[in-house]
Amino acid sequence: MSADPAQGAVSGGVPDTAPDTSAVAARVLGALVARGESLAVAESLTGGLVAGALTGVPGASRAFRGSVTAYATALKRDVLGVDGALLDARGAVDAEVARQMARGVRRVLGADWGIATTGVAGPDPQDGQPVGTVFVAADGPGGAGGVRQLTLDGDRGRIRRETVAAALTLLVSELTENAAAQDTEQRGEF
């Protein structure tokens, strides 16, 4: 049985098929280049896989600034500027932590957009959260952005791959919605 794939939730009995992250990464980069905007990535459980998907696209350097792999909780606080009290209270696997990671990497790397991943890939629970609990976030200009909570099944590799796809898909969605809002605003259709 499978939950809504657009939300990234997958449950038992679904074949282990890797999402086509290269196509989504190419869409992200194409949209950013068309807008003249840049992207930075903050990764925890994905350990550089989002950056890898983006840099696998020829011409990625036209929009991709770089990434911070903040696997340790202290790096989320010290490098990305995530609130230490929040980390102490909720742990690293949290929607607001993901949001602050995305905002922090934007600031640290001087990008228009930031995306972030944090969660539990397994094999053990973390911060009171079960394996498969993941948060992806996007933060952009003018308050644009959002956070999605995912509940993923599968082994560590599958959870990480699905997280990469979800983070990139979230950004595509934000870029598309943001572009539509800008078009409406320019036509005076508030």
General description of the model:
With 190 residues, the protein is of the alpha/beta class. The protein has one domain: Maf protein. Helices cover 43% and strands 17% of the residues. A 5-stranded mixed sheet has the order 2-1-3-4-5, sandwiched between helices. α2 links the parallel β1 and β2. α1 runs parallel beside α6. The radius of gyration is 16 Å and the shape is globular. The N terminus is likely disordered.
Write the layout of secondary structure elements.
Blueprint: H1 21-35, E1 39-43, H2 49-55, E2 64-69, H3 73-78, H4 84-90, H5 95-109, E3 113-119, E4 133-139, E5 145-151, H6 156-186
Parallel strand pairs: 1-2, 1-3
Antiparallel strand pairs: 3-4, 4-5
What would a concise description of this structure say?
This protein is α/β, with parallel strands linked by helices. Helix content is 43%, strand content 17%. The chain has a five-stranded mixed β-sheet, with helices on both faces.
Protein traits:
190 residues; alpha/beta; Maf protein; five-stranded mixed β-sheet; disordered N terminus
How many beta strands in the DSSP annotation?
5
CATH topology (level 3) name: Maf protein
Total helical segments: 6
Biggest sheet: strands, sense, closure?
5 strands, mixed
> What is the CATH domain class?
Alpha Beta
Helix content: 40-55%
Globally, the shape reads: globular
Q: Please give the CATH architecture.
A: Alpha-Beta Complex
- Measured between the Cα atoms of the first and last residue, the distance is 41 Å
Q: How many domain units?
A: 1
Please compute the radius of gyration using only Cα atoms.
16 Å
- Mean pLDDT across residues: 88
Order of helices and strands: HEHEHHHEEEH
Strand-pairing-aware structural class: alpha/beta
Task: Look at the structure and name the CATH superfamily.
Answer: CinA-like
Identify low-pLDDT runs.
Answer: 1-18, 183-187
Widest beta sheet: strand line-up: 2-1-3-4-5
